[in-house]
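Q: Structure tokens for this one, please.
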Amino acid sequence: MSKIVPNYSFQQGMLHVHIFSCKQPDAPIIYLHDLNGYGRQILPLLKDYPSFHLVTITIPDNLWSHILAPWNTPVGFPEYVACTGGAPQYLKTFVEEIIPHAESLLPPVSWRGIAGYSLAGLFSIYAMCETELFDRVASACGSLWFPDFENWFTRHLPLRLPKSVYFSSSRNEYYTTNPFLAPNQKTTESIQHWLDRHHVQTTFVLNPGNHYQDAIPRTAAAVGWILENPRG
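A: Here is the predicted structure, written as tokens:
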């Protein structure tokens, strides 16, 4: 397999932004936040899907739990999921600097999507509510256990309804008895049901195993679904 290289790249602070463009005119664009640069690895898995531009925003390990988190997790929350709330500040950079710069390098796009895995999946839902930019949203194994996120969603409903939203989870985390992570199921179902009632096309996929398995194919499946849905 030939090496997948970006057509354009630029640095935004500590973040590396790579643009993998397609030749089709008026193609959609998908923004994917990733860790350690795995985002490009979804492309071979999507070769039979409609053409699209992919923009990966690679976040260093030490910033992952900061810039994607809407607010701080409370004192006493487990260290392995401790987060500091950098998402509001980062969202401004994403919207005002990264997206315009990326799209200045491409022909006009037909629509925008945002996708991510784990905390990046949480950020995708957060961005859906705080901006009017995204027509389709993919939250793959999104960290919707995030403290008080369900209540936050009811107070910060999407500024503009997207056309479709993809949700997934792993079976082990969806049915966990861990008290800190258990809100994932209820919050996911609550947000999906709200969107369904407002005529947004949604789907939910329950994957076998745990959160850390198959992140790349799960992310590819999420992006593939929003590329094809809604149909027509």
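A few notes: The helical segments are 61-67, 87-104, 119-130, 149-155, 171-174, 183-197, 215-228. The mean pLDDT is 96.
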